[in-house]
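Morning F.,

Quick status update on the modeling queue. The single chain you submitted on Monday has been processed. Sequence for confirmation:
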Amino acid sequence: MELTTIWFIAIAVLFTGYFILEGFDFGVGMLLPVLGRDERERRAMINTIGPVWDGNEVWVITAGGAMFAAFPHWYATLFSGFYLLFFLILLGLIVRGVAFEYRGKGDTPQWRRGWDLCLVAGSAAPAFLWGAVVANIVRGVPLDANFDYTGSIWGLLNGYALLGGLTTLLLFATHGAYFLHLRTTGDLSARARATGLLLGAATAVPALAFLVWTQAAHGNAASLVLIVLAVLALLAGLALDFTGRGGWAFAATALTIALTSSALFCALWPDVLPSTGDPANGLTHENAAATEKTLGIMAWSAVVFLPLILLYQGWTYWVFRQRVSVERIPVA
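Structure tokens below.
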């Protein structure tokens, strides 16, 4: 297998891992005012992701670094052409991170309510925009002979991209609800389960439309198999949550995200950013790649450091695996 193929798969895996792990973070943030009826419940919800949310963001940082080193032309075109979308994603992540740190610095309800709104917005915006970004990558954008993006910001807000953003927004919210059902107790866990059922049902329609559109316009045999499995996994999550199997429901939505992301990257291959104008101007895994020597050095670095990162993050989740009980949250 060529190194360019290996690194395309590696980047796909990194983004997929990010969407799975950060997806439930986004979901918890979006559901804060929906499920948190008082300050203690909202603090319990935040405590479920408090030890892990910043570690989950390492996946997208690593994916961006791998893209920069392995496919510099892809990185340059993507981050320049999609500049505003990435700026808004970064702004949302910054606002969300600040909200985590500052909401507990004040004692007034107005102070906490304001930061809670920032947390909701800082979770919902990236959840939607990541879907729009990935959809535009699969769909392709207008590129010139120098691989420069020649479109406008409005061209990135096409129907397919907006449907992709809606799909990820609802799917991450469902993922977050299942996560809260798994990680909390009592009434909060029960409400999270009920909310997960509603959100899962609401997600099914746009997700199915987006996946069918993807297959019809850009798909291949491999993406078709993955799309069918993704739909089945989403339906399985609904059935499992309905029967009270919170852990399996969460695993099912994680699998749905993984299969959906994999289907999109399969539909994209062998391109990394197609051109909607002249196909010769599109970026592929070959013409966007770095030198063989660079790819080889990166491969050995990944062999050494990736297992260490996985072990550390796995240890973190193991240490903080216990459910969070509202009763143990001190009264403010």
